[in-house]
Write a structure and sequence with these properties.
This protein has 206 residues and is an alpha+beta fold. It folds into 2 domains: 15-107 and 188-204, RimP-like superfamily, N-terminal (GMP Synthetase, Chain A, domain 3); 115-176, SH3 type barrels. It has 4 helices and 10 strands.
Length: 206
């Protein structure tokens, strides 16, 4: 189980407070173990009356393990590092807030929430879902942050890449593994979750 950080009780936070905490938590953790891991996203959310601070990591593209899936030991290592930093910056949280710290891989079918993720997952196979349309499958070539446009090489006979505007809530971009065998091969390593530095117990999310 994830460790609950030592605060006093659950509080209700505004969307802006949640956003600010996510941003600060990301900025604090981003430099940690930067030659080994890339921090993909930080999410602060409430489930079942409890708050969770969740870090999602991948192996750094330049590391020796770049081609490998994130595993349990990776999550433990990152959790230890980020737990120390969070304890040093305890004042960033409301004084009576309790939360659970978790570290995991983004998952095989990760839905992208930021330009940072679109940049990290370039040249990966993706699916693009737009309401009322069939999903589009292809390779993410790039993202133009100025024009807010995706560049995708579709899995069709079309020779040229297509461009489309990206809006996270209406144009949903997700990772799409090449085939079912890649899913099965990575399944045992996907989404390992571990707790903060004082409690390194862990579970695997199904």
């Amino acid at each position: 189980m994830a460790k609950e950080k030592k605060r006093y009780k659950q509080l209700t936070l505004s969307p802006q407070q949640v956003h600010d905490l996510e941003l600060e938590a990301f900025e604090l953790a981003q430099p940690l173990l930067a030659n080994q891991y890339s921090l993909i996203d930080t999410v602060f959310e409430q489930e079942g009356g409890q708050w969770y601070l969740r870090y999602f990591i991948e192996h750094h593209p330049g590391s020796a393990e770049a081609a490998q899936a994130i595993g349990l030991e990776d999550c433990k290592r990152y959790s230890q590092a980020v737990g120390v930093v969070l304890d040093e910056h305890e004042a960033m949280f409301p004084p009576k807030l309790s939360y659970n710290l978790e570290v995991s891989s983004p998952g095989l079918f990760r839905t992208m929430r930021s330009e940072r993720e679109l940049d990290f997952y370039r040249n990966r196979r993706i699916s693009v879902a737009v309401k009322g349309q069939e999903p589009l499958y292809g390779v993410l070539i790039g993202f133009d942050s100025v024009e807010n446009r995706l560049e995708i090489k579709p899995e069709t006979d079309q020779a040229k890449p297509i461009h489309m505007e990206w809006h996270p809530k209406t144009v949903v971009v997700s990772l799409a593994p090449e085939n079912i065998f890649s899913v099965l091969a990575c399944e045992s390593n996907e989404a390992h979750v571990c707790a903060g530095p004082a409690d390194l117990s862990a579970t695997t999310i199904p």
